[in-house]
Amino acid sequence: MKKNLVTYLVKKFLRFDKEQPFIFISALLAFLGITLGVMVLLIAMALMNGFDNEFKKKLTIMNYPLTVLPKFYGSVNQELLIELESKFPNLHFSPYVQSAVISKSGSKLEGGYIFGVDFQDEANVNSVLKKAIGDQQFNKFDVIVGKSLQEEYMLSKGDKLMYIFTNVEPGGFSVTPKLKRFHVQSTFDSGLSAYDKAYHYTSLAALQTLLHMPSDMYDGIHIYSENPREDIVQIAEELPVSVSIKGWWQDNVNFFAALEMEKTSLFIVLMLIILIASINIISSLLMTVMNRRGEIALLLSLGTTTAEIKKVFLYLGIVIGISGIIAGVVLGLSGIWVLGTFDIIDLPKDVYPTATLPLDLDMSDFFMIVSGAFVIVVLSSYYPAKKASEVDILTVLRNE
Hints:
Number of domains: 2
Shape: elongated
InterPro entries: ABC3_permease_C, Lipoprotein-release_system, MacB_PCD
Keywords: Cell membrane, Membrane, Transmembrane, Transmembrane helix
Main location: membrane
Distance between the termini: 28 Å
Domain ABC3 transporter permease C-terminal: 268-389
Organism: Sulfurimonas marina
């Protein structure tokens, strides 16, 4: 019976009161504020996660999951490569030689790095380059360039591209930079213009010849792994002291730390929308308490307990808050679906491989948003509920 009383009073106080319309308007504003806050938070967190994952995907491809590097000259060689391939047959390895270069086409210059690789091995560790390699056959001094550089230089397949190497050779009384023309054989597109302009790929033999390196010596070994954070520990145990291994994330610690801090800051700032909306819940409930003081005092005098009165106003605030949270979740998930499905916002094509926004709502973020909003709603409802239960029966009835 008493449970029905609490339910009846909650429904009664939620109805529009013609004599006190501002109470209903205040509750409506609280509902809309919480709805807006939850919706914006869900979309914002999905955007942050989407861009975070997109950058991780690109950095993983172009920076490679794992890389073996020499501590001393000549310590990364064919013998080490064969040993790693035999001990870790589930992984893919691609030895490389690297040099800083300046590419030149007409009067245009661009700095970058050229990698000498075995194209067959490289295709197994780099999905972007695998598309560019395809079924083509490459000669010794053929080169694969990035799409951004190809468009800037207006290169076509078979064109010659001049490379200026940073190491120099003695020539009489002076030193001169080493120059070499390569034939452009193909183009890769990583989706990130910085890599497309800076990275170039040629044959391993070509770069070893130009840099006067033995054919069995490398500058490093790229490794493709599905679980690099686990495999790096196992590989490190098998490596000699003359070489080291690093993961792609170790070169980008500050970048992802900044993204995580930005995500946390955005979460806190947007949660303030819900906090501000909760003030409307407090004011709405307090106005309801003041407006219904006579009814509350009468109920208490007829045997209703203070705990039941507290429940009425606590449930009243929770109903408003949960309704806003549910509406916010529905609108937020709908917004994520619309933005991720339709080309509403244009993204720079030279940076992102997709025209639609990258959205990925993590379940931990979802539960954090919903639970955080619920806690704010409950705390906002508690104070007015407590004040309602403390109504002085004698004073109110005497004045009424």
